[in-house]
Amino acid sequence: MAQKNESVVREFILMAFVDLHQIQIFIFLLFLMTYIICVLGNLAIITVVKTERSLQNPMYFFISVFSTLEIIFVSVTVPKLLAILIAQNNRVSFVGCFTQMYVFNSLGVTECYLLVVMVFDRYLAINNPLHYPTIMTHTVCVGLAIFPWIFGFSIILIPAIFTAQLEFCGPNVIDHFFCDLAPLQNLACSDAFISSISTSSAAIIDVVLPFFIIIGFYVKIIITVTKIKSKDGKQKAFSTCSSHIIIASLFYGAAIIVYVKPKGSNYDKYLAFMYTAFTPTINPFIYTFRNRDVKKVFRNSLNRVMRPT
Length: 309
Prior knowledge:
Elements: E1 11-14, H1 24-51, H2 58-75, H3 78-87, E2 91-93, H4 94-127, H5 132-135, H6 138-155, H7 157-164, E3 173-174, H8 181-187, H9 193-226, H10 231-259, H11 268-289, H12 292-306
Parallel strand pairs: 1-3
Antiparallel strand pairs: 1-2
Helix pairs in contact: 1-2, 1-3, 1-11, 2-4, 2-11, 4-6, 4-9, 4-10, 7-9, 9-10, 10-11
């Protein structure tokens, strides 16, 4: 991501939520608690899946990978935001800004396609249960888990390079709480048309395409489930998918609004809160409170702790 010689900007200033300066302390405490809950909640899921033998299957393997991704994803933006809110440390270097932008968007694409992998796993389990154990071997699971990371960090190179090659001669104030493609393109002195087109095109491949793939899988899953005669069988099939549907809806809903039209607006930073902090925080609770297997493990663990010696 080479910087052009004409660019005179050496650092950017993140405005974050300066328009809400009256409640800066409240926002700081909100994001701090959100970050702590997100990290601890997802760490709890990773630990439980790793240590509990009954949860060592493909579905929970992908959930643990997803929890790991969520911790990294939220750590790219929230710590800097906390520094801005509490210490007014709102300056970020040119290289640091583009690094954050690249890593953040790469992780976002990784999450989009990891959600596809997770619904594909549920599709195989429900639509092809007899062959599922032989298809979803450990090697296949690892390969499917690695693919979104490779794809995400590769495809974002294109809009990231086009954006970094723009001329930045001032102003250098970003009305956001982290460095992102559209806010940076809006600051460019040179024509950002190609950069914007590359961002929109990437968004279609990175966000819209996996969204429709997920819808296609769920249509087939619903058709299969409706053919199940047993009421308990239907309920069990739907319960394994309901958590994923909620998470995917929240994440894709906000991401499509922000990235398919990358011109940028005053509301993007508030929508970004949904997929950068809110969704990663509620994920552990959705996966535990709506999953009978995980709830059973937590109850058994709690009983062992509370049991008198």
